[in-house]
Amino acid sequence: MAMHFPNLPQRVAEIRARLEAASSRGGHGQTVRLVAVTKTHGPEAALEAWDAGVRDCGENRVQEALPKMAAVAVPVAWHLIGHLQRNKVQELEHFALLHSLDSSRLADAVCEFGLKRKLAVDALIQVNTSGEATKGGFSPEELRVEADRLVGMPGIRVVGAMTMAPLDASELVLRQTFAGARHARQVLAAAGHPATELSMGMSNDYEIAVEEGATLVRIGSALFGARDQ
Ligand SMILES: *Cc1c(COP(=O)(O)O)cnc(C)c1O
Fold this sequence. Notes:
This protein is an alpha/beta fold. It is built from eight helices and eight strands, in the order αβαβαββαβαβαβαβα. Strands 7-6-5-4-3-2-1-8 form an eight-stranded parallel sheet. The chain binds pyridoxal-5'-phosphate.
């Protein structure tokens, strides 16, 4: 059968090699999971990634993700990497990890869902460490308060932090943004959460993110080519 993404196995291999090299340069000693971001592409993107050895895929919109996930028969671990509306929290049952827990009100709704299904929702707290007004997530000050509040919310298991870097930022700003997320993870761990994961790095900045300690990189266009949407 013809492949939609014929270069995918080579691209996966090259990215994996770069992840490994960046990880040893950075010296944080972490292993890095590659999350293939399949948004705007059909189910074949996830299937061909699976055939190339990728086990994790990311989607940023629930409505787009649901029919696609239903069309993928292999057991991909699906990651929700975009904003989740509170009235859609029940769709978390289809995802292995929520990367984008970005407000207290969403946390309340996610916790309620986790309690109702009697299984805590694994989530990363999205932090705004670049200071951009357009970016979602908790500021470092808000995070301190929320980290303590989340300790009393057994419907959520806080397994780490996530951040998005500004587009076209200098290397210095990228490193500051990523180091800020690393610090946020430390704040979460100090509050008592099992916070070991750090989701940061996209096609244009994943090597710097891994040098700064990323354990999950979210890569779309470097795998599947430019998106036209
Ligand atoms: C689209 C998206 C990505 C992947 O972006 P690329 O630049 O194509 O690698 C990563 N994270 C989030 C939250 C996204 O929405």
